[in-house]
Specification:
The protein is an alpha+beta fold. The protein has ten helices and 13 strands. The strands form four sheets. Strands 7, 10, 11, 12 and 13 form a five-stranded antiparallel beta sheet that branches. Strands 2-5-1-6 form a four-stranded antiparallel beta sheet. The protein has a two-stranded antiparallel sheet with strand order 3-4. The chain binds protoporphyrin IX containing FE. GO terms for molecular function: heme binding; metal ion binding; peroxidase activity.
Length: about 300
């Protein structure tokens, strides 16, 4: 996890010229990353490019990855996971913001009027990796050999081995209402202690914690995803949020987590994190392996 990140969402404009421009620019992503790294004095810089269902065929000329669809709205009794426009995602991560801004500036100048920027959210690291609800976020992420197994497509979709499904959601928090809850209530909602981040036991029945609702198990065992959520804020507008981003080998795993959060398990016992966090955007992408992107430039 880096100290800075940007989540840039673009839609592609209509016309052959637009898709030609976009194809050539996303095909040269590796060169642009190299260019920024070359000027970064060893500071971390990296970017992933996701492509959405609506433009996949026009842009790549290849069949779609097996599970790719647009983000499906999920309507619970009280809360809705909204689906919003987005054809391209740039998930940019760096040791400092100047590298991210430089990358976005060069990128958007090159893309010109072939795209429209829908949103551009700057994420920052908050103390010891906390979200703005003040809990440490990202602890249960897979690592070591479990990481590629959870996040990268395998032989189940031979053309896209090494790619990854990505879901993003932009949440705004009601911090005043959250602060009115006791620490014990907040901990029960998340499923971990606040100060030292220790896991609490799963509830056997009734209301489940966020951690428990997002644990997906079947006969194959537990299905993990990789999250790189970032807090974002504009204090002058009283805007405080969490930008959720999840990478997964199987899109259905993230969709299942969302169903359990919004509809509840059992319904209508939704994730109580949603009583203090409202999603205002949601979109799904597939991040192809770098070589696939390079080939688009040809
Ligand atoms: C766990 C925060 C949305 C999936 C956690 C934890 C926190 C957290 C603090 C516990 C520490 C950790 O393991 O990282 C948030 C916030 C969200 C949000 C503030 C937005 C307002 C989501 C969404 C998903 C998700 C939308 C999936 C669709 C998970 C998973 C875990 C987790 C898989 C780990 C569960 C386990 O222990 O195995 N989240 N989360 N989260 N969250 Fe979220």
């Amino acid at each position: 996890m880096t100290t800075s990140a940007a989540f840039l969402i673009l839609t592609m404009n209509t016309g052959n010229q637009a898709s030609k421009t976009v194809r050539s620019i996303i095909g040269s992503t590796a060169d642009l990353i190299k260019d920024i790294r070359g000027r970064a004095n060893g500071r971390t810089f990296t970017a992933n490019v996701g492509i959405g269902h609506r433009v996949w065929s026009a842009l790549t000329g290849r069949p779609e990855p097996k599970e790719l669809t647009t983000f499906r709205e999920i309507k619970g009794a009280k809360h809705t996971a909204v689906s919003t426009p987005g054809d391209l995602l740039y998930h940019i991560r760096a040791a400092s913001t100047d590298l991210i801004i430089e990358f976005e500036k060069i990128l958007l100048e090159a893309l010109g009027d072939a795209v429209t920027a829908v949103d551009d959210v700057a994420g920052f690291r908050y103390f010891d990796g906390r979200d703005l609800l003040e809990f440490v976020d990202g602890t249960a992420n897979p690592d070591g050999l479990a990481l590629p197994a959870a996040t990268l497509v395998g032989e189940e979709d031979p053309e896209y081995v090494g790619g990854s499904y990505v879901v993003v959601q932009k949440y705004l928090h009601d911090l005043a209402a959250w602060r009115e809850q006791s620490t014990e209530t907040q901990e029960a909602i998340i499923g971990r202690t606040k100060f030292d981040n220790v896991e609490l036991p799963d509830a056997r029945e009734g209301q489940k914690s966020h951690k428990t609702l997002c644990t997906i198990t079947d006969e194959e065992g537990e299905h993990d995803i990789l999250r790189d959520n970032m807090p974002f804020a504009v204090p002058g507008r009283q805007e405080y949020g969490t930008y959720f981003i999840g990478y997964s080998r199987h899109l259905w795993v993230i969709e299942k987590m969302l169903e359990r959060m919004f509809i509840g398990d059992p319904p209508p016992l939704h994730d109580r994190i949603l009583d203090f966090s409202t999603p205002v955007a949601g979109a799904t992408f597939f991040v192809p392996p770098r070589q696939f992107l390079n080939n688009l430039a040809d």
